[in-house]
From TrEMBL:
It comes from Nakamurella aerolata. GO terms for biological process: nucleotide metabolic process. This is HIT family protein. The active site is at residue 80. A motif (Histidine triad motif) lies at residues 78-82. Gene3D superfamilies: HIT-like. GO terms for molecular function: catalytic activity. It comes from the Bacteria. Residues 1-93 form the HIT domain. PROSITE patterns: HIT_2 (PS51084).
Amino acid sequence: MVAETPEAVAFLDVRPVFRGHTLVVPRAHVVTLPELSPDLLTPTMTLAQRVSAAVLPAFDAQGSFVAINNTISQSVPHLHVHVVPRTKGDGLRGFFWPRTRYTDDAERDSYAARLRAALDR
């Protein structure tokens, strides 16, 4: 355990991307971020923010990668925030998965409209 609050804990990942890779986890059982209640969102993300700041001096990192998987690629069915220390030349290049493009502005705008509609529900 590297840190804990009444609502969340932080501990080192047993299969780290890089040494110092930390998981921040709410104590209450929640599977995905959309299920996280507002009263747990703030303390969980505040702890993730503290850890992302601490990995810099702790591991001579120049930055961090912070990520959450929701269902797909989620190896454990409990919400966890990955905080991975990063240094220039560490081998990761931005997002480390395939990228795509929108066909044109109209397609991009249609995706934006769909997301706005879902947010308004």
